[in-house]
Automatic annotation (TrEMBL):
Residues 215-232 have a biased composition (Low complexity). Pfam families: HtaA. This is HtaA domain-containing protein. Residues 1-28 form the signal peptide. It comes from Streptomyces hyderabadensis. InterPro entries: Htaa. The chain crosses the membrane at residues 437-459. The keyword Transmembrane helix applies. The keyword Membrane applies. Keywords: Membrane, Signal, Transmembrane, Transmembrane helix. Residues 36-201, 238-386 form the Htaa domain. Residues 204-237, 398-430 are annotated as: Disordered.
Amino acid sequence: MPARLRALVTVVCAALLGALLSVTAAHAESRTVQGGRLDWGIKSSFQSYVTGPIAKGSYSLTQGAATVGGSAFRFHSANGTYDAATGAFRAAFTGGVHFLGHRTSAGSHQLDLTLSRPTVSISGSTGTLYVDVVSKAKDTGAVTTSRQVPFAALSLGGIDMRGAATTVALNNLPATLTAEGARSFAGYYTAGTALDPVSLSADVEASAPRKEKQPSGTPSPSATSPKPAKTSGGAVRDGAVDWGVRRTFREYVTGDIADGEWTLSAGAQDGGALFRFPGGEGTYEDGGLTAAFEGTVRFTGGHGLDLSLGNVRTVVEDGKGTLYADVTSPDVKEKRVPLVTFTAGELKPAGGLVKVTEAPAKLTARGAQAFGGMYQAGTAMDPVSLAVALTADAELPALPDLGSEPTASASPQPEKTGADTSAAPVAATTDDGDFPALPVSLAAGALLLAAAALVAVALRRRRARPAASPADPDQG
C-alpha cells in the first residue's frame, strides 16, 4: 500500500477511534445522585412483635425518618453516584429507626435495636442493602455498634439499570437477610429470612463538564472563603425550628378515621417527617436563646378536626427549652401557648450556629388542652431541633430532601426461561437525549469495516488511474 494511502487510513482510523473513546468516556462517567427517598418496613412482623403484647415496646424515628403507608419507614436525602452506561448505582439515605421492647424492672430494655443510614449498592444484576446497626444481644445484653453492615441481599429480577436520565426509581425489590445482617439483628432471625421489600427513588444530576486544572499557585475557592466569625452572643440573623408535632398524630390525621390532611402557609415547609418553621429572629446571650419563627401548619379532617399551629417561638434558659405557638381550634384560640418542653443542654456557638438536635419533648398541660384532650400532659411528642445563625455566612442545616416525585418505577419480574430479555424494564425512562455507549467490540468492528471500505475505494481509484493514455470508457 502506498505511503500516502497508509497515511490516509491511519488518519481516518485515529479520528474514528478518538470519537468513539470520547463518547464511551462520557457515558462511563459517574453522575451525582442528590435527593431522593427509600421506603422500607425492615420486617413488618418484627414491628408487630415489638409493639405487641409480648415485647410491649415501641419504636421512634431519628434524623428526619418518617412513616409512609401501612408499615414502611421513609429515609431521605439520597447521596451517591450513578453510571448510566454500566448501571452501577450507590446511594446512602438519611434517617434511622430505634426499636425498644421487653422493659426490665430496672427500666432498661432487653430488646434495643437501631437501624440507620441505609445504603443501596447495585452492580450488574446484584444489589446489597447496607445499614448502620446498634444492637443489644438477647442473651448477654452486650451492645454492638457496626457501620454499614451488608444487611440484605436485593433481587433485581432482570431490571436493566442502564440508561436512566434524571431519576433512578425501583419498586418492591425483594430483600433477604444476610448472615452478617442476622448477627447484627441480635439473633432474632436467621440468614435467608425474607425481609420487607425495598423501594427507592433518587434524582440523578446531569453530567457536569470537566473542570480545567487551575495553574500552579492559583488559590482554590475553599482556600479563600472566609471562615465564620466567632461570636459569643448577639442578634439572631436567621434560624429554623424543625418539629413534626407527633408521628402518631400525623398518622391519625391522614388515616382512615380522620381522613384528613395538613396544609402549610406563611413560609412553613414540609420535610416529610417534620415541619420547618423558618425565618428565625431574636437574641442569643450566654447560653440563653429567645427566637421567633415564621410559618403555620393546619391539620383538618373528620370528627371536627381543625387545628392550626403558627408563629412558633422558642425560649431556652438554663438548658431547658419551651416551644410556644399560636393555637387556633374549635375550642381554643390563644396566642403563645407553651406546647412542649425540651432539654436543650448547654448552648454554645459553633461555626456561627447555635443548634439543638432532636431534643426529646413532652407535652405541657396547656398543650394538652390545645389538642382537645387527645393526649395527656407529659406525653412524649416529636423531638425538637432548632438552629439559629449568629453570623451572616453561617449555613442552617439542610431540610430533608425527598427528591422528585417518582413517576414510574421498575419492579422485579419473574425469571424467564430462555434468553429473551426484550421485556426487561429499565431503571427509569430516558428523556434528555442520552443514548447507550456503543459496545467496544461492535465499535471496533465498525471501525475496521470503515477502514476497509476506505482502502477498497482508494485501490479502485488507483487501478482506474491512467498510466500514459486516456482511460478505457468501459472501465469501472
